[in-house]
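Why does this matter for the project? Reviewers at the last site visit asked to see concrete outputs rather than summary tables. In response, this paragraph embeds two records directly. Each consists of the residue sequence and, immediately after it, the corresponding structure tokens. Nothing has been edited or filtered.
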Amino acid sequence: MSLTTAGALLGLVFATGVLLAVLWSPPLRRVRLEERLSPYLADAPQPSRLLASGTAISSLGAASRLLHPVLVDAARTVDRLLGGARSVRRRLLAAGSPQSVEDFRVEQVIWGVGGVAIGILVAFGLSLVGGTVSVVTVLLFALSGLVGGVVGRDWWLSAQVRQREERMLAEFPVVAELLALAVTAGESPAAALERVCRLCRGELSRELRTALAEARAGATLPAALQTLAERTSLEPLARFIDGLIIALERGTPLADVLRAQAADVREAGKRALLASGGRREIAMMVPVVFLILPITVLFALYPGLVNISLLTR
């Protein structure tokens, strides 16, 4: 590393620190509403720690008090730039996460900072291999790491939703058949749901347990089930909940409907498995065509090519 490059990097770090110190100084930092009201609410009792939900900021330990304003403001900036708060809230509910949109944005900021650190380390590693350090390369890798970290957290949330819905879809036939068995035995739909929630362990039974808890808290059971259907994007589960709601509101027979829905889901699972097998079979052709077949042809033709080259000498 040359002296000019090292001086430029040190000057950039110093200028960044001075800029942050000036922007986050009390005269320039924007005063929020809670900061204005906090002196007048100092005697208010603090909420119990048992009721506090674990967030990405509180998991940082003692550094959370120092980093809290910076992370919250950075999370608000990311939310303004990216938008889509409604989509994030819907996916958080579908993933069964207790986080809020602000907590998710804070995690995106943390992932972005980690991406910046990884990008800088990769840039310095490539620079050590090449023997020169380029400021432009470091900045490009840092920016790529920042974007990759923010987008990667969003992608991971979508992946969590997809994996959870796959688990719910795998549990659905068993839950539907147990409900059909309980209803056939003479229990009401609500009692059958309670029995299935006691017997089953999984994502779908957890969602049904949440719906029953909402119903006990004051909401009607059809409204709680409808809220459950709105949290997921699974069409078989939506039809299943519609059947339960119709049975609760109109008193229609439910056992045959549940059995038919369970059979439909099993058939859909078989079709999805066959489709996945077909895609994997096509993917298996890639190493066969581009790796095994050329090597086989090379082994078959190489002795003849050697003999021809010896004869032409």
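We now turn to the second protein, recorded in exactly the same manner.
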Amino acid sequence: MKRSQMMKVLAGLLISASTPVMAQEVDLVSMEVGTLRPEVQRRYDEALAATTDPSVLASLGSSYMYASEAKVWCGIAIGFLKTATRDKESLSRCEKYHRLMTQPAPAVPVVSMPEPPPRPRTAACDSPLAATFFFDWDSVVLPSNMDETIAFVTENMVPCGWNRFTVVGHTDRSGSDGYNGPLSRRRADAVAARMQVAGVSGTALTVSGRGESEPKVSTADGERNPTNRRVEVTASN
């Protein structure tokens, strides 16, 4: 086997960090010189292969540092062994860093974030009338506080369990029935459209217009009244 091929094989053994490889580790300091040389040489070759392996070079862990230290100290130990000298310091460090280099990285615990506690029910949950929007005379222009009121409705959907909304438009008695019916429906449609923009599903909305037939405040026919020009949103589950 060519040296380049051997280096690739050794690098693969290092990356796998399997248990059988670790089981072969022995105490270098206590070995005889004759059996010590191949053990130190093996560790040196594996460390050298690791320091040139792209996956080790690109890793963010300590593998490259341990491999570099093992290569240095195993190389020093080999130098001493050429004169049949067992240098305890280089042998122990060779063994230490080679073991660190080949042992599997500790598993990183997966920390799951707990689900936030559900929002408690609010006083709004006890009233079926979730919101009321008032309109100017003969107008379908949404009121200025529209978004704040819709935000109140959407924020209470989960704690209150709301999943259905009835959107009903109304007018005052200042126009004819034929005119006020469509006007009240246009007002309800405008509110429903803005609710969908805020995240309420269109399938959860039931929209209608009642014209001037259900005034909030009783008035004479033909009288303008701002309280009656409204859209009421009723919530249910």
